Predict the 3D structure of the following.
Amino acid sequence: MNQAWGLTHLFPERAARHGGAAASRASPPPPRRCRTIAVAGGKGGVGKSTVAVNLAMTLAIAGRETVLLDADLGLANVDVLLGLTPTHHIGHLLDGSRRLEELLMPAPHGLRVVPAGSGTRRLAQLGNGEHAAVIRAFDTLAAPPEFLLVDTAAGVSDNVAMFAAAADDVVLVVCDEPASLTDAYALVKVLSRDFGVRRFRMVANMVGNAGEARQLHAKLARVSDRFLDVAIDFAGMVPRDEFLRQAIRRQAAVVDAWPSSRSALAFKQLAGAVDTWREPGSPSRGRIAFFDGQDASPAGW
Ligand SMILES: Nc1ncnc2c1ncn2[C@@H]1O[C@H](COP(=O)(O)OP(=O)(O)OP(=O)(O)O)[C@@H](O)[C@H]1O
Ligand SMILES: [Mg+2]
């Protein structure tokens, strides 16, 4: 948009005060930076989608412009968790029939969701070029949101690793099971060794209390400190909560359905902590990142 036109029409008094010509010479405001947070964990069923949906919804309820990308391609369930019925998904972006903008589905409280499509083998078997096209398509958004949350699939495949590595922050969802810890460690190893990700944030899910959550973090941090050159910060905990399970059955976020439940309060605390996280640095060289300004045309896949 022409800057002078925007000033004159949106702020007529200010434009007049500063003079039309001066206003048109003024440098454009710096582009707003979108913070991107990938939710991962390695193991299936540890609560990645639950955390992604509720964290995104908490931010949206707080008035923060938020988009949630379902990156569990081929086995999508963010739409199910939120009771949405998508007509289009990532597959339509990749075959060129829809732009990313057209995939944004309205969810409660102004949250917008990019659905991934379910039961489509093709989507579950995308190559790195297609993953990169999805990530780069975000550069085409006319108005980037304040937050992009990315719900990733289980496992340590390139699909998971590319989406996680493309984000500013990787949140590891871990629960108190040996396989959850070993799978989270495996994911940290892949992301640090092959993608240069050095900082992680851990959320302990389905725990009984804060002490258990801290113990879980200590276990993961101890082994990672010893064998990998990474930092894993403790980001928070979500208690095991029957209200959360009921909300899932109702196809609603618990922060929306039962805002005073223990899990909803935990998500609010987590969302509050996001603002205290250090500003993201630039992604390491060679890594494809969300909103890194590269031209993005997801044509041909
Ligand atoms: N804090 C919690 N309290 C109670 N139940 C929970 C909690 N978090 C998750 N669950 C239960 O665990 C189930 C799996 O959660 P979710 O689908 O978010 O896991 P996931 O890691 O995304 O799984 P997948 O790897 O299949 O994508 C939920 O359906 C819910 O029943
Ligand atoms: Mg999931």
Q: What stands out?
A: Residues 1-24, 294-301 have pLDDT under 50 and may be disordered. The two ends are 31 Å apart (CA to CA). The first strand starts at residue 35 and ends at 40. Strands lie at 35-40, 66-71, 105-106, 112-114, 147-152, 169-174, 199-207, 231-239.
